[in-house]
Amino acid sequence: MRGKKLILVVEDNEDDVALTQRALRRENRAYELVIARNGGEALDYLFGDGAYRDRDVSVQPDLILLDLKLPGLNGLDVLQRLRMDTRTHMIPTVILTSSDEHRDVIESYRRGANSYVRKPIDFTEFVNVVKQLGGYWLEWNLVP
Prior knowledge:
Elements lengths: L4 E6 L3 H12 L5 E6 L2 H9 L15 E4 L8 H10 L8 E5 L4 H9 L4 E4 L4 H18 L4
Parallel strand pairs: 1-2, 1-3, 3-4, 4-5
């Protein structure tokens, strides 16, 4: 069993990446973060393509935090691709986005999201949300 829990953060906003990193560092738990700045990079990481072709794809993230509004391939398309592949279809995937549009919520769950969380604008709230997500999905939630 690996010591550190691996989280793939798929986010193009540098400020949100920095806040997520800070929040998870404050938890004092053994989390390793991989940052993908667009949907294509996320899929390359997960499936060992492109710049990640030498990566051991038997080691998959324990959690994916996925933004919807990404350059190129959007989060909904990434989510659909994840759920179609046996190597990634059971990875807990949380939509962490600024969108509160009803159609995005519905479509995210339709495509297999485990949770949908709107990013708080307030720094303290954002940090608390990310800490709680990490705690729930990586510490308390049982996975197959």
